[in-house]
């Protein structure tokens, strides 16, 4: 999460070597959806469209979707933003008040404030595509040459299915080379790791089962990114 701190406090007050050069250029810090609308290209109806969007009789709106079809019919001057985590619908005139919604989420301790479906890690990312009381399904992407930590779990087992790319998997004392459409089971308590030795992204589906599936159920023994290690 990027801290809410101005460049004055974060940079300028901490250096004696800053240089300022005057320039004549347009500037907008794009601090709201309305300001993004103002600087973006628009269609014939004055809409700013990003993603799979279908509109009819819709004008002067900004509509953004990261993954699914969004249709808008007979609306005007709206902000519609669809992400994997949530949907925002607001009047453009109220765009500066979105921070009030963030305050409401914080006050009501909503998990959406901190927990996101798509999470980025130094080695790549994962997308939590489905979950229930005792299972969770993730789509994991490991960047070329990267490796997850050597780790184990106290409360869950895992089943990995390779979708594309190649994987080197260690499971206790064994090492496996896996390719597309191959899979491996990681029992609860097994010390394991996952590495992408290839030149393309490694994509796999991870199915977790167990009594607790939180991200804090990770005991690391080795980690190239210097995260917490079990002593």
Share of helical residues:
under 10%
Task: Indicate the mean pLDDT.
Answer: 93
Radius of gyration: 23 Å
Strand line-up in the sheet with most strands: 7-8-9-16-11-14
Largest sheet: 6 strands, antiparallel
From the helix content, strand content and strand pairing, which structural class follows?
mainly beta
β-strand amount: 35-45%
Ranges with pLDDT <50 over ≥5 residues? none
The number of distinct β-strands equals 17
Number of helices: 3
Order of helices and strands: HHEEEEEEHEEEEEEEEEEE
Describe the global form: globular
Question: Describe it for me?
Answer:
There is one protein chain. The protein is mainly beta and 231 residues long. It is 9% helix and 38% strand. The strands form five sheets. Strands 7-8-9-16-11-14 form a six-stranded antiparallel beta sheet, with no helix packed on it. Strand 5 and strand 6 form a beta hairpin. The longest helix is centred in the middle third of the chain and has 10 residues. The radius of gyration is 23 Å and the shape is globular. The mean pLDDT is 93.
Key terms:
mainly beta, 9% helix, six-stranded antiparallel beta sheet, single chain
């Amino acid at each position: 999460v990027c801290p809410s701190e101005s460049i004055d406090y974060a940079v300028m007050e901490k250096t004696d070597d800053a240089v300022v050069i005057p320039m004549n250029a347009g500037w907008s810090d794009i601090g709201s959806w309305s300001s993004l609308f103002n600087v973006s290209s628009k269609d014939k109806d004055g809409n700013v469209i990003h993603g799979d969007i279908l509109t009819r009789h819709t004008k002067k709106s900004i509509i953004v979707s990261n993954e699914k079809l969004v249709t808008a019919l007979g609306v005007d001057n709206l902000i519609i933003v669809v992400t994997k985590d949530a949907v925002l619908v607001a009047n453009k005139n109220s765009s500066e008040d979105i921070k009030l919604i963030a305050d409401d989420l914080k006050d009501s301790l909503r998990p959406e404030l901190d927990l996101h479906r798509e999470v980025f890690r130094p080695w790549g990312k994962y997308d939590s595509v489905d979950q229930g009381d005792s299972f969770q399904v993730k789509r994991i992407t490991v960047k070329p040459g990267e490796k997850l930590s050597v780790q184990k779990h106290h409360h869950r087992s895992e089943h990995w299915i390779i979708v594309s790319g190649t994987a080197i998997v260690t499971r206790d004392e064994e090492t496996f080379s896996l390719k597309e459409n191959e899979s491996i089971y990681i029992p609860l308590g097994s010390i394991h790791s996952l590495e992408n030795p290839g030149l393309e992204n490694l994509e796999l589906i991870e199915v977790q089962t167990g009594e607790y599936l939180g991200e804090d159920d990770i005991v690391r023994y080795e980690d190239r990114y210097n995260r917490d290690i079990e002593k």
